[in-house]
Amino acid sequence: KLCAFLKERIDWIRANLSKDSLIFTNLRDFSNCMVHHPDRVYHVVNFLSSLPAAERIMGIAYEDLGKSLPEEIGAWTCAVRKEMDRRGWTNGHFIIHVHEQWGLGHSTQLSCLAMGATGIWAGVCAEGAALGHADSTTTILNLIRLGNTKVQGQFNCQYLREAARVVTEVTTEGLTPARTPIYGDRAVDTVFGFLFSDPTAQGGFDLCKFFGLEQDIRITTMASPEMILLKLEKVFGKDEKFNLEIATSMKEQILKNAADDRKEEYNSKVGLALLFDQAGGKMTSEMAEAVEGDLKTSQHIDNLIAEIKEEWDIWDGRDGEIDDQVTFDHFYNGFMAPYFGCYRCEDSQKGLQCLDMDSDGMVDWNEFRFYLKWAGRQYPFVKTKDELLDMTFRKGLIPAMKDEILQFREANTKQNAI
To answer: Please, which residues have CB within 8 angstroms of residue 357's CB and are 6 or more apart in sequence?
Structure first.
């Protein structure tokens, strides 16, 4: 009866809509039926596959509601694909849609593709009923990461991340959750404690590079005048006032500030503009506007930093005195834990050296405040201390720590070569 019903609907569509309609039959309860009544799935697939070539539809769509293990539905997919091929329906499509329920959605979807599914039917982002579904952006980027080149010829893959973010924001009227894989803000962060498996450090697939996300030039005591000049031009655009002479003076000012124990930051618009001014440069109008805007928001940022300082003092006092210094252990427990996967791994310990500016084995409040001040200047519209901390780690500390580790590795490589 079910097969006769399907044939009746197929004929009606071709008679009333278009004889060239691209028709799919969706097996919505595919997984449950394969567990309890696999014979029903067999009869439907066998029937559709046995239709005369001129009467066959475009293909079969099927769904998993998020309960099946990847290896289970992979085996079922393989069985259905073999039956389609056995009956001569080799050009019939078999496309999967996976609902999210237990965190296995994308693994399940990739398993189906590996075992005979010809495609997926999904939205560009994960938003959907209940917990959403395995989206096309994440699946396609995983295929590219694993070596599939065909999808890059079919889709504008470099735009997928932006498209997923836009659709998410339009659908939810909110920002994309930061922890969303591939297109969330934190998807391009370094996961510390696992840098040994970071593909960008091993010459593998680089998500930032693929999406054209540039690594920023960060100005420290190690920056050359050429780097400082590039930073000026990148932040404020080309200007006749920006040259190697003023960049050299800025480098000298950085070293002078360090010698005078002045812990300044130079990577925000405001910080760079103030350094330019201290080095004898005449501010451009854009620089002046940045500094003026900082004066308007600085009280708000100072208040947020003061709230963070209260938390700092709690951890600081655990050794019996408040001296504006905390151990790495206390700093990790108080502030770093949400961002670092493994604190005691060698890479994480090396990365932490970028916070220990005076190499005393402790994190000094002024060292941490340096990054908080930078984040406040660069992202002046943060509303809470938690947002300020988030920007401090994701945009400032984590990239700085990655650089510290890579520099350490490069130095070791050169030493070993000698």
So the answer is: 263, 364, 367, 370
- The tokens describing 155, both together, are 């889709």
Under a CB-based contact definition with an 8 Å cutoff, are residues 217 and 231 in contact?
A: yes
Phi and psi for 91 in degrees, rounded to 5? -95, 5
Q: Where are the alpha helices (DSSP H) in 51-135?
A: 70-86, 105-114
Query: For residues 254 and 370, what is the distance between their CA atoms, to the nearest angstrom?
Result: 14
| Distance, CA of 14 to CA of 11 (rounded, Å) | 5
Taking the whole predicted model, whether its pTM rises above 0.85 is answered as no
Residue 362 DSSP class = E
Nearest Cα neighbor of 50 from 103, 11, 7, 107 is: 7
Q: What share of the chain is helix, strand, coil (3-state, %, to 5)?
A: 60, 5, 35
Digit-coded pLDDT (tens) for 209-261:
555 555 566 787 878 888 899 889 988 889 989 999 999 999 999 998 888 87
* The token pair that represents 382 in the structure block: 């943060």
**CB neighbour list of residue 136: distance below 8 Å, 6 or more residues apart:** 120, 122, 123, 124, 160
Residues 62 and 40: beta-carbon distance below 8 Å = no
Banded pLDDT at 199 (limits 50, 70, 90): very low
**For 307-355, how does the pLDDT look when each residue is reduced to its tens digit (9 = 90+)?**
999 999 999 888 778 888 888 888 888 888 777 766 666 656 665 666 6
Q: What is the distance between the alpha carbons of residues 374 and 376, in angstroms, rounded to a whole number?
A: 5
Query: What is the spatial distance between Cα 292 and Cα 314, in angstroms, rounded to a whole number?
Result: 34
| 3-class state of residue 180 by DSSP | coil
Sequential DSSP letters for 228-297:
HHHHHHHHH---TT-SHHHHHHHHHHHHHHHHTT-----SSHHHHHHHHHHTTPPPPHHHHHHHHHHHHH
Looking up tokens 């050429």, which residue turns up? 226
Output the pLDDT for position 405. 61
Amino acid at position 411, single letter: A
* CB-CB contact of 141 with 109 (8 Å): no
Q: How far apart are CA 380 and CA 302, in angstroms?
A: 11
Helix H or strand E encompassing 91? none
- Cα angle 190, 193, 196 (rounded to 5 degrees) comes to 80
CB atoms within 10 A of CB 329: 12
Lowest mean pLDDT among 164-178, 266-280, 400-414: 400-414
Structure token pair of residue 39: 């014979």
